[in-house]
Amino acid sequence: MDVPMDVFETLTSVPVLAEAWEKVKANGGGPGGDGMTVPIFQGGVRGRLATLSDDLRRGVYAPGPVRHVDIPKPAGGLRRLTIPCVRDRVAQTSVGLWLTRHLDREFEDASFAYRPGRSVQRAVARVASLRRHGYRWTVEGDIERFFDEVPHDPLMTKLDRHVPDQRLVDLIGLWLEVLAPGGKGLPQGSPVSPVLSNLYLDELDERLDGHGVRLVRFADDFVVLCRSEETAEKTLARVAGLLGPMGLRLNMAKTRVVSFEKGFRFLGRLFVRSLVIEEMWDDAEGLPPDSPAITGRTDPAATEDDAAAVDPTTGPDSPPRTPPAPVARPLYVVEPGAQLRATSSGLAVAVEGRTALAAALHDIDRVELHPGTQVTEDALRLCAARGVPVSLVGGDGAVDATVEGPLSARAGLHLAQAALVLDPVRRLEAARILARGRVFNQRSLLRRLDRGRHVPLVADTCRALGRSLRKLPGAQDEAALMGIEGEAAARYYPARGALLRGPWDFRFRRRRPPPDPFNAVLSYLAALLYRDVAVLIARRGLHPGFGVLHGTRDGTLGLASDLVEEFRAPLVEGLAVYLVNNRVLAAEGFSTGEDGACAMSQQTRRTLIVRYETWLDRPVVSPASGHQVAWRGLIRDQVNLFARHVEGAGDYVPYALKN
C-alpha cells in the first residue's frame, strides 16, 4: 500500500480491508470473544467488510469482545494470548501492515523481530559475526514481563510523532484500551502488537547500540556484545538505567554478564566458544518455537555478507522462504573431548563435564562422532535399540564404522526390490530414469551458476549435456548408461571449475584421496549427503544394497548410490561453488600431506557441516507431495516414491532442478 495524504481513509477502504482479510484468512486462528470463526466470517465477507469500513469511517466502530487463551511456556509458566474478534483482526491487520512498512525505516539495525527480511537466523548470525570481530563478552538480557508492562501514554506519544493521521492514532489507542485496560500492555495475539513493541523499544536500540558495544535484539530478548568483562558490567547497569524511565525493568533471573567461553543461550541457540547449537526448545518470550533442530553448529547459519549472495539452487520458481516442516536430522558431535551420553529422555552431549545439548531421540535420524569425541555404552545401546545409527567419522568425512540395529524386517518390500533388480527390462528402465535425473540436474546447475556470466565453456557443455540426455533412451544396458553418464561428467566438471572464482582451481574429479581443496570439499559434502539418503532408505524399510544403476554387490549400498544421484548437483556441487565463490572457505583451512592427499582443518569441517545443514533447511516444493518441505523432506518423499515404484504403485520421477 502507498502512503496517501489521508492514511486513515485508505486503510479503512474496502479494497485494503479485503487485502487484510486475505492475511487473516491465511493465518486461520480461532474466534474472538464473539464466537465467530474465520469460515463463518467468510460466508458474508463482502457485506461484513463494507460494514466494517463504514463503521470505521463514520466513527461508530467499537471493538468486539476478546478471548483469552493461556498456553504453556517451554521454560515453564503460562503465556496469555488475547484473541480479538475476526472483524477486529481484519482492521488491525490493515493498520499493522502499513505501520510495519511505514516505521521500518525508522528502526535500528540491531532489531530483528517482526521486520521484513529479518529473522531469528539473521539475529543468530549477527551474534556469531560479532564474536569473530572480538566481542567476546555479553550482557544476556530479558525484560521483565515486557508485553504486559509497556505503558500506553509514552507509546501513544511516539505514535503521534511518526503517524501522520490523528484518526489512525486514535484508533490504535482505542484498541489498546479494549485489549489491555489499565493503561499498559501490548496484548499478544493482536496484529498491531509486534510493530508497536518495536516502536517502543526503538529508543533503547538507538541509545544502546554503538558506543563501543553492539546490541542484537529480538522482541524483548536481547544480548549486548562487549569486548571486555568490565565494559559488559558497566553496560548492564546502563541498560537498567535506560529501561527505568521507560516503565520497564530487567528480569534479573534471566539477565547476566557472561563470556562466549562459558556459553549463553539466545533465541533457542546455545553459544559456546565458536559453537552455535540449535536447541530443542525456544524460551524467547513472545515468540513461537522454531522447528526442532539439534545440529551442532560451528559457524552462523549465514553472515551479513552472505545475505545478498547468489544461491545457485534457488530462482524465480522457488517457493517463498517460509520455515519448512521439521524433519529429523543428524546430531553431529564434533568438539574434541565431547562425550555422547544417554539420558532418561534421549541423548545429551557433555563438554568438559557440562551438558551442552540435550535432545529427544525421536528428533534424531543419525549420530556422527567426529575425531576426538567419545560415546558411552548406554548411549550406543539406546541408539541401536531405537534404530538410530551411530557412525565414527574420520577427518576426511568418510565413515570408519557404524553401530546400528537390525535390518528392517520388511521381507515383502525386499522381495519386491529383488524382483525389480532381477527383471532386466524393469531394472534398465529404472536405471535410465536415475541417470537422466543426474545429467539433467548437472545441466540445470551449470545454467544457474552461469547467469549473468556467460562463460563460453559452460554454454558448450550445456549443449553437450543435452546430447547426452538424448542418448539415454537408446542405451541397451546399465553399462551403456554408465558410459553416457561418465561422458557427461567428463564435460561437466571442467565447466563447473570454470565458474569458480580465484584462487580456487578445479579441473578434474578425484575422490580418494582428494588432491586439492575443492575435491576435498566435494568429497566431504557428498559423504554427508550419502549418509542422509542411506538413513532415509533404511527408515522406509528398503534394502540399501539393491541398486539398479550402480548394481547389487556385496559390501556396497547400491540403492543409496542410485538415489543420491539427483541430489548431487543441488545439494553438494551447488553448495560447494557457493562456499568458494562467497569466500566462506579459506585456503588456510587446507593442507597437503606427504601422500599428496588434501586434508582440511577441524574448523573447516565444522563450517562444512554448518553450511550443509543450513543448505538443507531451505524450503523447496516436493513434486511427489506438492507440499513445501525442507530438502530432507524432499529426499524422504523421493525415497517413498521409489518404494511405491518398487511395489508397482506408480512411476518414479527424479527431482528436476529448474534452469
TrEMBL record:
Biased segments, Pro residues type: 317-327
SUPFAM superfamilies membership: DNA/RNA polymerases
Cofactor requirements of the protein: Mg(2+); Mn(2+)
Enzyme Commission code(s) on record: 3.1.-.-
PROSITE patterns noted in UniProt: RT_POL
Gene3D superfamilies listed in its UniProt record: 3.30.70.270, CRISPR-associated endonuclease Cas1, C-terminal domain (1.20.120.920), CRISPR-associated endonuclease Cas1, N-terminal domain (3.100.10.20)
Top-level taxonomic group: Bacteria
Matching InterPro entries: Cas1, CRISPR-assoc_Cas1, CRISPR-assoc_Cas1_C, CRISPR-assoc_Cas1_N, DNA/RNA_pol_sf, Rev_trsase/Diguanyl_cyclase, Reverse_transcriptase_msDNA, RT_dom
Span list, region Disordered: 286-328
Boundaries of every Reverse transcriptase domain copy: 52-271
Keywords, comma-separated and alphabetical: Antiviral defense, DNA-binding, Endonuclease, Hydrolase, Magnesium, Manganese, Metal-binding, Nuclease, Nucleotidyltransferase, RNA-directed DNA polymerase, Transferase
Residues the record lists as binding Mn(2+): 485, 550, 565
Pfam families, per database record: Cas_Cas1 (PF01867), RVT_1 (PF00078)
Subunit: Homodimer, forms a heterotetramer with a Cas2 homodimer.
Family membership: Belongs to the bacterial reverse transcriptase family.
HAMAP family the record matches: Cas1
NCBIfam families noted in UniProt: cas1
Protein name: CRISPR-associated endonuclease Cas1
Naturally occurring in which organism (per UniProt): Roseospira navarrensis
Organism lineage string: Bacteria, Pseudomonadati, Pseudomonadota, Alphaproteobacteria, Rhodospirillales
Gene responsible for this protein: cas1
